[in-house]
Amino acid sequence: MTAYYDDLETRSADARAADHLARLKVLIAMVQDHVGSCFPAGDVTDLSDLAKFPVLRKSTLHDWQQTNPPFGGVAMGDFTHVFQSPGPIYEPGGSTHDWWRFGRFLHACGIGKTDIVQNCFGYHLTPAGSMFENGARAVGAKVLPAGTGQTALQVQAAKDIGTTAYAGTPDYLKVILEKADEMGVKLGLTKAAVSGGALFPQLRSYYADRGIDCLQCYATADLGHLAYETMPGEGMVVDEGVIIEIVTPGTGDPVAAGDVGEIVVTSLNPDYPLIRFATGDMSAVMEGSSPCGRTNMRIKGWMGRADQTTKIKGMFVRPEQVATLVTQTGADRARVIADRDGDADKMIVQLEGADLDQNAAASAVQSVLKLKGEVTCHAPGTLPRDGLVIEDRRTYET
Questions:
Q1: Kind and range of the H or E run holding 161
Q2: Which end of the chain is more exposed for a tag (fewer CB within 10 A), N or C?
Q3: Distance of CA 51 to the CA centre of its chain
Q4: Would the keyword Disulfide bond be found if you checked this record's keyword annotation (predicted)?
Q5: Quick check: helix, strand or coil at residue 250?
Q6: Phi-psi category of 355—alpha, beta or left, where left has phi over 0 and alpha has psi -120 to 50?
Q7: What interhelical angle do 319-329 and 358-369 show, nearest 10?
């Protein structure tokens, strides 16, 4: 097996940017020319121009699909499957080579032509099972379409056919191994490709102690494979078929390198081009390149959810409102803090920027948030860069 899935993984940053820009221009033109398109006019001459376009949120896509089923009038290419995820949201799926791009991750896991993959992701309605099967085919592996549940039968099948690799959620592999121990069955699993849940360090160590190398990837039903581990503790390398931005929650504004923000993805798949699709997940860019030799940007993995909507004094405060507050006050950034004053809610609004007008800021807070609160102004670079625009400090212990 070669060290890398293809030459794309080790190309220069300039070569990658040029390729992505060329593909992005084609996709934007296709989306804009599509009948009934809601995508605004505009062109890109640099990848940074993406920030000029609006963020597409899952709630908006859901509304489009309800009005114009099943895919909301989004420009489409060739597809062979239709999946349903909670919402409901409908996603297309393809059968061509590595349509969802999971082959890259499975290759990094060491899975190839000599392996039989026990695919324990679901095959019904949701796309995860098909995603990993398509990726396994891309690397030449054979697949046991196991799905979830019936653990004793899974153990028996793994023993009888000699599965060597597991694909599924991080915790279900442990269930299979413990059931095998209970049945007195020795399994030949040595590799694990996991997603869809947290891979805690102690769980990874448990698998390592049993001779199983376990790596995780980040993916969504809408977009497919987005980023993947190549070795533990070194973050996740971004997939070559997407462009990832990290933005301030509630806005489309990119954060500074290294700051925590919401993951926004542009898929370069011409069969289902989603441009600036907000995942609702938080992460941050890692500095430098991976020691494995892959040169694409790395992210730190999942760092929480971006929807920080919080109820204060009976009123919801949303990230979008905080973004409006930043615009109206001329601040560089803002942070709304929900706290308690005795038995009552208390709101503190921190604004960061130069030469801010305290009185005007207080007026803007009341106008935008519809609440009164303590307003404090801070020098540039003062507020935390942790991705929070709304922080809830309240505790409810009696």
A1: helix 151-161
A2: C
A3: 18
A4: no
A5: coil
A6: left
A7: 150
